[in-house]
Amino acid sequence: MIRSLFIVLLTVTVGQVVAVESETTRQLDFEVFLNDREVGRHQFELLEQGDSIQVSSTMTLDFKILRIKRIQYSHQANELWHSSCLVALQSETEKQGKAFAVEAKTDQAGLLVEGPKGTQTLAGCVRGFSYWNPQWLEGDNLLNAESGVYVPVAISSRISEQDNITHIKIVLPKADIDLEYDATGEWLSLETKLLIGGTLRYQRVF
Asked: What is the spatial distance between Cα 31 and Cα 26, in angstroms, rounded to a whole number?
């Protein structure tokens, strides 16, 4: 499925037939915790071919707040990147029984994004929340695959001298996201404060 979607989107979006190149597939698996309690999973499959990469991700969460309110969440997304820019996106999300979708595709004007909040065209090289590639976490805005909103951000990074871990902080209007990477650039963890309370944390499963 991921291979066929990659080929279709690459042909339509990039607008040219590319020569068959060697493919590399990677899988990233994270356990998701709310404070110290495991509440779900977030898994990524990356198919790289030449200058393009197809990213398929699936996330599920199921937990209770204060043992009263139950939170159920699922999210599935397919992204196509070409030459470090996001050129196509399809996502479906369900929160508390409410479903919504986002679709983005490239035309002559830029990246046309259709989501719950309406339609917009983004010019230039659009970036998203590419946690799996820290080199692409750049810019003043990142496209949220769940909402379709082009979110203003401030991004900073530092390297710990003790363990050579790279720490990247993404500051958003309502929350911060803290990421960790090892010396080779492998994504290790994510942490953010939730508006509903508590700390959401990703821990890489090897």
From this structure: 17
